[in-house]
Amino acid sequence: LIGTYTNTGKSEGVYTYQFNTLTAKTTLRHITKQVDNPSYLAISPDQKFVYAVNETGNTSTVSAFKYNALTGELSFLNKVDSQGDDPCYIIADNRNVIVANYSGGSLAVFQRKADGSIAEAKQIIKHTGKSIDPQGRQKSAHVHMVHFSPDHKHLICNDLGEDLTYIYNYNALAKSTVLSIKTVSKTNPGSGPRHLTFSPNGRFAYLAHEFNGKITGFTYSNGNLKKIQEIGTTPKDFAGKIDGADIHVSADGKFLYETNRGDANTISVFSILPTGILRFVQMVSTLGKGPRNFSIDPSGKFLLVAHQ
User: Fold this and answer.
1) Cα 144–Cα 62–Cα 126 angle in degrees, nearest 5
2) Are 182 and 149 in contact (CB under 8 A)?
3) What is the pLDDT of residue 152?
4) 41 within 8 A of 83, measured Cβ to Cβ
5) pLDDT at position 145 over 90
6) What is the pTM of this model?
7) What is the dihedral of CA 241, 237, 195, 300, to 10 degrees?
8) pLDDT bracket for residue 9 (50, 70, 90)
9) Which of 24, 29, 185, 286 has CA atoms 20 to 30 A from the CA of 159?
10) DSSP for the chain?
């Protein structure tokens, strides 16, 4: 499933491809049209529903679709106000859909109904801080990612504008206060925390910073992050824009990957030691411009990069 921007270029919506994990051959199955800027997608745990952000400034919404895995078809169910400008990240579990609103500096929780559609937001949390980026990208809060902890008891939220990582207690069944603050940790001023990923065993977390492309490694336990490492992802003499983007760990927990956009357009590979410490392996071109997101296929043999 590939999300796109429909207001630039020729994209028509959400694209469903069949992917052959033996040959890496892709076959277009379906295009779900008339979906505004579905720049990020989430699939429900039972894989029967898909949720998309509609990143359209102050008219932004969140859309729910029924998903047919055989045909690749998405059937529109409903959409609701995202409760913040420019949602850029979305996650779903059996109970809720949670959205990160980038320009709005907010996160919003929506209840999933029995038919897969979503109700109006039942909780909205607005961040209000700022930080020091000289290019002006931190004049206000920018919620960039929401992510469930491995034990599903907490929600991690990165705010690029504030240089903060929030950890919320997560109560999936609550009527209104689904999220409540547990801890807030500061990143280095002007680093721009963007995406975070966990090791499969849940013991380690890795945070990618957009502005300097660095990765911070943490041990993780019961809603607490403890820093163990910070490592760069570009050559020491690299002078261009980095714009760190996405970060994922392989299913076997042995390797970590991180993409940089800007003037880099590379993916950096690290091995993960048993202690959680990263060791640099290689850096390669992503063969395109703006490697904003990527995923590793279920077989673990292929890594698919989406260039904006």
Assistant:
1) 45
2) no
3) 97
4) no
5) yes
6) 0.97
7) 120
8) confident
9) 286
10) -B---SSSTT--EEEEEEE-TTT--EEEEEEEES-S----EEE-TTSSEEEEEE--GGG-EEEEEEEETTTTEEEEEEEEE-SSS-EEEEEE-SSEEEEEETTTTEEEEEEEPTTS-EEEEEEEEE-------TTSTTSS--EEEEEE-TTSSEEEEEETTTTEEEEEEE-TT-SS--EEEEEEEE--TT--EEEEEE-TTSSEEEEEETTT--EEEEEEETTEEEEEEEE-SS-TT--S---EEEEEE-TTSSEEEEEE-TTT-EEEEEEE-TTS-EEEEEEEE-SSS-EEEEEE-TTSS-EEEEE-
Overall average pLDDT of the 191-204 stretch = 98
Q: What is the 3-state secondary structure (H, E, C) of 242-264?
A: CCEEEEEECCCCCEEEEEECCCC
Closest CA to 62 of 36, 32, 44: 36
Calpha distance 226→230 (Å, rounded) = 12
